[in-house]
Amino acid sequence: MMQQPRGLAKDVPDRAAADVRWKPERLDPSSYPDGVELPVFYNDLDTNAHINNVALGRYLEHGRFDAHRRHGINALVRPGNLLTARVAIDYLAEGHIGRSLSVRFRVSRIGRTSLVEEQGAWQGGVCIALAESVLVYVEDGRPAGISAELRAACESLMRT
Predict the structure, then answer these.
(1) Which CATH homologous superfamily contains domain 28-155?
(2) What is the mean pLDDT of the segment spanning 57-69?
(3) Which of 40, 103, 100, 35 has the alpha carbon at shortest distance from 70?
(4) How far is residue 116's CA from residue 101's CA, in Å, rounded to a whole number?
(5) What is the pLDDT of residue 12?
(6) Kind of pairing, strands 101-110 and 114-123?
(7) Longest CA pairwise span in the chain (Å)
(8) Is 137 helix (H, G, I), strand (E, B) or coil?
């Protein structure tokens, strides 16, 4: 059962659970095969003592990088060959200092030259953000086919 984000009145429904844009499994941290626990730092807070939205983007970026490193994706591409074409972040609840941030990661689709990655960030059992990134594999400045080795590494991060 999802907890209600802090700061909402008791009669206000959980915004994330009520949002029909997201399939329920996107809000389930166990549907992401990889993740990392990150501490929240004081300098990442805004004037209301919430995790700043730009800082949250950095936490998600770190989660992507960490998953790529642990699953061998970084070793399979030269710097500059796997480009981020799009990142979209939906902020669902406030994050605070004093609790770690659980950033979960998975690959949702692999095409011929690109892949889509999905992430969620949880704090205290509450999903505070969902993100989607599109990465394109390039060679000589143009989209190129994803190698079998890179495809296999990415498939290891897909939801089973």
Answers:
(1) Hotdog Thioesterase (3.10.129.10)
(2) 96
(3) 35
(4) 22
(5) 36
(6) antiparallel
(7) 56
(8) strand
The sign of the torsion formed by the CA atoms of 38, 39, 45, 48 equals positive
User: For the chain, what is the mean pLDDT?
Assistant: 88
Could you tell me the pTM of the whole model? 0.84
Q: What is the pLDDT of residues 1-53, one digit of tens each?
A: 444 444 433 333 455 554 557 788 899 999 999 999 999 999 999 999 999 99
Tokens of 141: 């400045």
Structure tokens at 29: 């941290």
CB neighbours of residue 129 within 10 Å: 24
Rounded distance, CA 110 to CA 151, Å?
7
Task: At 25, list the tokens.
Answer: 């499994």
